[in-house]
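2024-03-11 09:14:02 INFO worker-7 job=invfold-0412 stage=load source=structure_tokens
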């Protein structure tokens, strides 16, 4: 997954993920997946990352949403949202 962004945005990027939760009887339940960023690529026109569900994890029960923020300085999460999207469910050890 890649997204065109401004060159000055590449240096200060924060990728935030939401933990995949499902509700059972009104209570949020973690599906026991464990996502991590195992590779990233940055250049002047885009950024991309490879996401992996841990080998010892369980399969994701549904898609997970993510957001990419940018800030010239400080915490990017309190700044400009430059992209959002979702990742389809991954099995244990699977990457996307």
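2024-03-11 09:14:09 INFO worker-7 stage=emit residues=96
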């Amino acid at each position: 997954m890649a997204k065109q962004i401004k060159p000055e945005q590449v240096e200060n990027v924060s990728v935030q993920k939401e933990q995949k939760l499902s509700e059972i009887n009104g209570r949020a339940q973690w599906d026991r997946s464990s996502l991590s960023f195992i590779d990233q690529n940055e250049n002047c026109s885009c950024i991309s990352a490879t996401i992996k569900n841990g080998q010892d994890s369980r399969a994701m029960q549904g898609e997970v949403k993510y957001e990419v923020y940018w800030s010239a300085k400080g915490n990017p999460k309190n700044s400009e949202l430059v992209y959002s999207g979702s990742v389809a469910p991954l099995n244990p050890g699977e990457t996307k």
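2024-03-11 09:14:09 INFO worker-7 stage=report msg="Strands lie at 2-4, 13-17, 21-24, 27-30, 35-42, 46-53, 64-70, 80-87."
2024-03-11 09:14:10 INFO worker-7 job finished
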